[in-house]
Amino acid sequence: MPPISKIPNPRYVIERRSRARSAVTAALEGYRAESDSLGAATVIIGVLGPEEKNHLLRLLTDEGDGGVRQQADVALHLAKDPTPSVKKAVASACVAVVRFRAKSNQLLGTSIGPRLWRTASGQGRLKKLGRPSVVNNRKVCQTVRDYLLQHSSYTAKRIKVAGKIVQVRNLKRSRRALWTSSAQMQKLLCLRAWYTHLGKHQSHFKKLKCRSDVCTFCHKYDKVFLPSLRTLLSQSESKMIAHQPDYWKAIQVYWNSLKLQGKTDPDDQCSLQYVRAAIKYMRRMLAARAALPVPDVAGALGARLDFHKDEADAMAALAKANVILECCEHHFSGVKRQHGFREDKVDNLEHHCVDIQLDFMENMTTPLGPEEAQDWFWATARQSITTLGFYAHYWLNGVEHRQYFHFISDILNHDSAFAVQAFGDLLLRLGLSDQHTVLHVFADCGPHFRSYEFLWCLVEVCKSKFPTVFLHFLLEHHGKGRNDGQFGLQRRWAVDYARDHVISDVSDMKGALEAGAMMTMSLDPPPAGPSYHIVVFTPAAKPKFVDKLDNSKTDLQIEYTYCLRIQRHPVPMYVAVIKDFVYSDRSTDEQKGVSIGNVVMKRQPAKEESWRVSYRKTEPEKDNLNVGVLQRRLDHQKHAKLANLAARADPEIVKLARDQRREAKRKAKYL
Ligand SMILES: [Zn+2]
Ligand SMILES: [Zn+2]
């Protein structure tokens, strides 16, 4: 159909449109009041311009004998189901007269669909994607299934579909991405049909969620704070330029020269370095202007006052951002320092030192097993297994040992009490000698390790085994590199084994992990490669009492330190001396450690009588950057800060964040 003629004169358009509007409304009302279809049709025809009238009549008379009857059909359409040809005619008339679909629908009290409207205005049909009608036949099912199989991976998870147990497969990409990236699938099904089909007929293909362990501070800094800072900077920039076009010139010159020397933050102006400089600069500009006399021109005083006010507002906003930037910088700096120290220890371990890193793994659930064991799965309730991982690194008789221990257990307490017992057990398993005098323990900031209970456990270890014990904490949300590696392996071992064995309890799990460990070790045999040891750990009954360091007798606040050193006291009467170095890199300088005061044990009745089942808390992601926490840390750790600023985009921190993201992805809960 040819496009309806365009109407060039806007006045004419408005006039005619309003005429049409009132006439159509009147026609509708008239028809409804008197059931006078002929009259209504006449009115409608009456409001059309000669061109549209011809067009409408042409359309109407194309079919049948034309004339009044079809005109009446037009009116009939206003209330009843119209025939397709009338529908088309009405749509064409509306396109010509009313020109807006929504308006036409409103006026006629009916609905002209988007497709019909497009056809009537000569825009051609909407493109239909795929064939929505074909959703379920054997061939489609099979083709889609083959495609999904190609783009998914094995998991040990099972679900019940229509009374049958099926193996869940994890899609490597989202369902949408899988459709958009395949011409074949698009030809087969439109997107809506794709979703429906997958939901109904391929429900065991799932995109399993990754549980992300990425640091919330770094994440929020990137996603929430930086964009807002960018806006703030450009706003304050243009505000000042409006008052004085060359306002920023001097600082630009300065910044560019720094940049040439490679001395600017990789994030350029979105950084503490720039914001600090900008605030200083604005303060100077303000002072310099205030010192000048107001020019003797009408309105000069008002203009200057406005300028001052805008400047003060911008400075206040930047100062706010500056506080956040300082807190975040403190965090980045800490990440860099603790990890730097840790990696250095890993690479250059001295012969008298023992290095241990530990962490809890997310629980695994059993039973796991092959498809044949189907019924059995659903007859048994699922059970969780705790893993506490240790990485131990030391020299013995000139040989470097790297050992991983997987302590698996039914007991689900991820707490200090469990960690303390397991740690004691671990020390007995290491081949240590008297030459080992220094113990370094690296842990994350989880409450299970950063606690006065765990600290006291190390005091006892210091008394009995190592004259010097360090407790290092990796930065909040940035811990456990070595342990994550071993947990990744453990997951893979279990999944592999479950392909043709049933893992129903801890002892099955031990078998599974040992088989996997054997496999892994055969590829890179110890002592050149690391060794893996699986331990079914059944601690003694939960102690009735909790021994912990009595921090009321000390200046220590464990939540604000990343490095504590415990040393055996030369006089046996005293327990030990604990020094707080705040950061691990400061522990090489005796002067930088502060003795926490009297080291005294406090014994308390345990809160819980026995070991229990516990769940890992997941944190909400939607909150803002929690500046309060960072601020408190900065306040407590100010004295230990480095002079150099740490940048978020520092290659080291970027690398750490990337590794962590990758690790988090790998840790996707397949089990
Ligand atoms: Zn972070
Ligand atoms: Zn932890």
Q: Which tags fit this structure?
A:
671 residues; alpha/beta; nine-stranded mixed sheet; three-stranded mixed sheet; 15% strand; flat
Number of helices: 22
Characterize the largest beta sheet: strand count, sense, and whether it forms a barrel: 9 strands, mixed
The CATH topology of the largest domain comes to: Nucleotidyltransferase, domain 5
Secondary structure class reads alpha/beta
What are the low-pLDDT stretches, counting only 5+ consecutive residues below 50? 1-8, 62-68, 613-623
Structure summarized in a few sentences:
By secondary structure, this protein is α/β, with parallel strands linked by helices.
Structure notes:
- The protein has 671 residues and is α/β, with parallel strands linked by helices.
- It has four domains: 10-120, no CATH class; 138-206, no CATH class; 216-333, no CATH class; 349-617, 2-Layer Sandwich (Nucleotidyltransferase, domain 5).
- It contains 22 helices and 14 strands.
- The chain has helices at residues 10-34, 37-47, 50-61, 68-77, 84-97, 101-108, 114-120, 138-150, 175-180, 183-188, 191-201, 216-243, 249-260, 272-291, 300-347, 374-379, 416-429, 452-464, 481-498, 506-523, 627-637, 651-666, and strands at residues 152-161, 164-171, 205-206, 353-366, 383-396, 399-409, 438-443, 468-473, 531-536, 545-549, 563-568, 576-580, 594-595, 601-605.
- The strands form three sheets. A nine-stranded mixed sheet has the order 9-6-5-4-7-8-11-12-13, sandwiched between helices.
- β1 and β2 (164-171) form a beta hairpin.
- The protein is flat and about 110 Å long.
- The two termini are 60 Å apart.
- The model is unreliable at 1-8, 62-68 and 613-623 (pLDDT under 50).
- The chain binds zinc ion (2 copies).
- The site of one zinc ion (ZN) has 4 residues, from β4.
